[in-house]
Specification:
Chain A has 424 residues and is of the alpha/beta class. Chain A folds into 2 domains: 243 residues, Aldehyde Dehydrogenase, Chain A, domain 1, CATH 3.40.605.10; 153 residues, Aldehyde Dehydrogenase, Chain A, domain 2 (3-Layer(aba) Sandwich), CATH 3.40.309. Chain A is 43% helix and 21% strand. In chain A, strand 14 and strand 15 form a beta hairpin. The mean pLDDT of chain A is 96. The interface between A and B is large, with 67 and 67 residues. Strand 13 of chain A pairs parallel with strand 16 of chain B.
Chain lengths: 424, 424
């Protein structure tokens, strides 16, 4: 079989299994998920061995320490995967929700009902836990999954998928044989061939760095929901409560700098900058944050402050994911909004102000998945939103936007219940 | 400017205008729409002249009579466009609907609010009325539109767009200058260049034949919502009420055969076929319907029936849009569902039966935008669903599915209202 034929077979088997999956009740799905959690627990040795081989291979090929760390599966990370599956089992079934219910004048009853999307391809890098998290969320929402992880994690992923599938089969004879599949080949062309299967694949969700997401989007013939970078802003307005602004800025930058909802650029209204910025900069310096500042901000900072550099154009675009912060002084909310439109990534942006009109303008005009008034950007997260587990945070506008949980992994169909109605 | 630069400018102007559009209230938008309707009425002569030139050019180039007819703008069609704009003005504003509203344990209030998608490109063929219908729906839903119609209709489209934009400007000084734009060049590469503007264009909706939609989907880098063909089925189950089944079959085939929600294949349960099919075939023959039948159906039909041909494999895939019907005898609901999965286009499919279990199975397992129990497939339509005007019927699953009206032209954002909350 050629690569293309192999991918087509994988996709069409997934389609078939997606249909079978639709016949499982919530209870049946949850029982499978709980059995999968137990299977991971029981397979720790097997998983650890596979992971050790992956780690050894990766170390030999000379990948970075950060990538090695992402690849590592220790007991704590296995525990987190197990907990994740159990949490998903406990969440409500997103399938079958009635989104609309109307009776037309001719008596035809129309119900809009949430249904699974069908076949979802997940493409990711070296973190093996994405395998389990994605498979669990897709399974619960009634979707068949095709997983394509980084080649350095292939043995770990294989061990994990085998444990999940075996547990599903053991628990329920109707567990669809191809509900959760892995792309086994490490051939890079496999992605292109798989994402050309428009007949069978309904959606692709790439999870990882910008390069991966861009490459997938460019080659895909099926819809892609992108989880791009988070160039998140906090705008401290002239009428901000300085203490509140300071807490929000610190939280958004340093509480967990390596994630997509962390702030990357601080915008400060010129009206408050002389009073606010020196003290704020000192607090950030205490947390070892490096500042990349525009000329106006530079003029306000104490000369003895460590780690201050002039910002270049690239800094406004940068997703540092690190203890680095771009800082710019702007003339009010209009300029802040213009800056965010020009440089932002439509992820999460916040305004701190006591002025309701300016807040309303910011919330209305900043075109991002999540916009905050007097709160940290760090809240953009399925768990924090109370949506349960999430498969990622979409920076797209079509399909799902913001935290993408179980409900966002469904679509809908219209069901017409008639008594012989025909159209006049 | 190169073509690519021209397209990029068009797109980025649209983006800017989309932001300005968001500042108009419902009343302001509706006033513009009503003024647009009046402007069309006042510009009948201008429009007729432009259309006559298009018609003359098209006739010279030797296009088909059917295409010439689609190109024609007579008073009746102009009336329909005017009525369309007024109807849209009367519909509720889809923007600003609160889709979710929750207060988290930390006091952070999260609201999920419907917002415009942004910039929508509409690509269509020769029917000039698509220009006005699309522009009106997109404007009402707060989206900037870039219209790319067929080159044979370019003078008509230009006259229409000019009338709409002038009316908008006259009515409201804040009417965004580039809320409604046309791609002026007829260069085919313009589509590819425009749909490469991922920074500015949020969505593309191609409207037209399968070839157009496929070409657009293949070249686009921005999300596309497809309105593919409708290979719709009616399955007459063994426990159908024959009189009801007969009425539904006739309606689905002959009431308006040239539209996407008309039935193209009739599936008849073997258990009822001998009793049902001969009479049904005669009724269809009376309406001049040509039948393309499988062997089992052929064996049941009276030999004197006119216009009966054996079906080939292509017939099961065919969207005739004509008085032609493929007919197949199947062994029960399972085989009907398998046939629909294999050959259908996920548009609209119906079962006629008194057996609730079989109906439930059909409704659950047929993976189409609209599924009916004891009703005609012809109901899949924004107006019939009570959704108001529609821009088309999506056969996609991501973004919008089925009739795509004003609400389906919006996305959402999350608005977080805090009092200084930070993440622990």
């Amino acid at each position: 079989m050629t690569l293309r034929e192999t991918m087509r077979q994988l996709a069409s088997r997934a389609k078939e299994s997606a249909r079978e999956l639709g016949r499982l009740s919530r209870e049946e799905k949850d029982a499978c998920l709980r059995a999968m959690a137990e299977a991971l627990d029981a397979s720790r040795d097997l998983i650890a061995r596979a992971n050790a081989e992956d780690m050894a291979g990766a170390a030999e090929s000379g990948i970075s320490a950060a990538m090695l760390d992402r690849l590592r599966l220790d007991d704590r990370r296995i525990d987190a995967m197990i907990r994740g599956l159990r949490d998903v089992a406990g969440l409500p079934d997103p399938v079958g929700r009635v989104l609309d219910d109307r009776v037309r004048p001719n008596g035809l009853r129309l119900r809009k009902v949430a249904v699974p999307i069908g076949v979802i391809v997940i493409i990711y890098e070296s973190r093996p836990n994405v395998t389990v998290d994605s498979a669990g969320l897709c399974f619960k929402s009634g979707n068949a999954t095709i997983l394509r992880g980084g080649k350095e994690a292939r043995r770990s992923s294989q061990a994990l998928v085998e444990a999940l599938v075996e547990a599903g089969r053991r628990t329920n004879a109707r567990f669809p044989a191809h509900a959760i599949q892995r792309v086994e080949t490490t051939d890079r062309d496999a992605i292109r061939d798989l994402l050309a299967c428009t007949e069978s694949v309904d959606l692709c969700i790439p999870r990882g760095g910008e390069g991966l997401i861009r490459a997938v989007s460019e080659c895909s013939r099926v819809p892609v929901i992108k989880h791009y970078k988070g160039v998140c802003h906090v705008y401290v307005d002239g009428e901000a409560d300085p203490a509140m602004a300071s807490e929000i800025v610190l939280n958004a930058k340093v509480q967990r700098p390596g994630v997509c909802n962390a702030m990357e650029t601080l915008l400060v209204d010129a009206a408050i900058a002389p009073a606010f910025l020196p003290d704020m900069a000192r607090k950030l310096a205490e947390k070892s944050v490096e500042l990349r500042v525009d000329d106006r901000a530079a003029g306000l900072l104490p000369p003895d402050l460590p780690r201050v550099k002039p910002a270049s154009e690239e800094d406004w675009h940068a997703e540092y994911l690190d203890l680095i912060l771009a800082v710019r002084v702007v003339d009010g909310v209009e300029e802040a909004i213009r800056h965010i439109h020009r440089y932002g990534s439509a992820h999460s942006d916040a305004i701190v102000t006591r002025n309701e009109d300016r807040a309303r303008q910011f919330l209305a005009e900043v075109d991002s998945a999540a916009v905050y008034w007097n709160a940290s950007t760090r809240f953009t997260d399925g768990g924090e939103f109370g949506l349960g587990a999430e498969i990622g945070i979409s920076t797209d506008k079509v399909g799902a936007r913001g935290p993408m949980g179980l409900e966002e992994l469904t679509t809908y169909k219209w069901i017409g219940l008639g008594t012989g109605q025909v159209r006049k």
